[in-house]
Structure formats: C-alpha cells, structure tokens
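Example (one chain per record):
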Amino acid sequence: MEFTKKDLNKTLWVKRENQEKNRKRYKVDATGLILWRLAVDIANKLAGKDKSYLSGFWDAWSYVIVENAWKFIVKWNNKLKQKKYYTYSGYKWNLRSISLDELIQKNPTKALWYAVRGMLPKNKLRDSRMKRLKLVVDTTTKYDNFKPVNLYK
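Predicted structure:
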C-alpha cells in the first residue's frame, strides 16, 4: 500500500500502525562496492528517502542488512591515511584518533558503520535508525525469514 495525497494543500499524516505494516527490509552484499557510495544508498534507505511520506520527524522503519560488510573498496589510497576518526572520553588530554587504514585493519565493519552514521541527518532519530542497520561479516540466513529485498539487482 503506497501512501499518496489526494489534496496537495493538506499535510499527509500516516498512522504509526500503517508505517509498521509497510516496513521494508533490504539486503546488500558489500563485496566489491565502494565504501562511500554504499553508505549513501544505505543512509537513504534508513532515512526513508524512498517513501512517499518522507518527513524529517518521522522514522521510515526500514531495515538494512549488509552481508560481507568488510569486503568494500576504498577508491583512493591517500584517503586511507588522511581520513581520521576521533573519540573523546571527556577527560583532559584524552582525544584519540585513528586513521581509516588502522580502523579497517582493527574492525572493518566499524568503518562502514561510521560512514553511514555520518550521512544520516543529525537529529534524535539517528540512533534509532542506526539500530536497524545490521552488519554481518559473512553471509547469513539469520534474517531470511523477514524476506529482505535486494538493494542492488
């Protein structure tokens, strides 16, 4: 069921029950895909950019399952050294940084997680959207009972 407006001068209000009925699950195999292009497509699905009832304060309720989440490609080699991720614990002199190259060696799925998180809107819904991103190191049949749709055909 697709939601459309008959009168374009009125705001479309979709009930939460209808949103949950139309929840979609997408599956992606990240083998050979470029990191940032993959992150853009995942962020668009999590934010609900493909929904007709898109709004900044509604959640799209879409799930994205990424299989082989460590087999992505970083296009530019200098980006591996230049891109830094920072964490700060709140204590004085405790700002830590890690380059993309070190992060991929240490925890490769975290690099994709950071890329998707950075591309989502910075609001209260970002954490709930990130919870619906499932990163799997290998292929899995754990989520097949939800009948996910392939993001790339």
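Caption: The helical segments are 16-21, 35-47, 77-82, 100-106, 108-119, 126-131.
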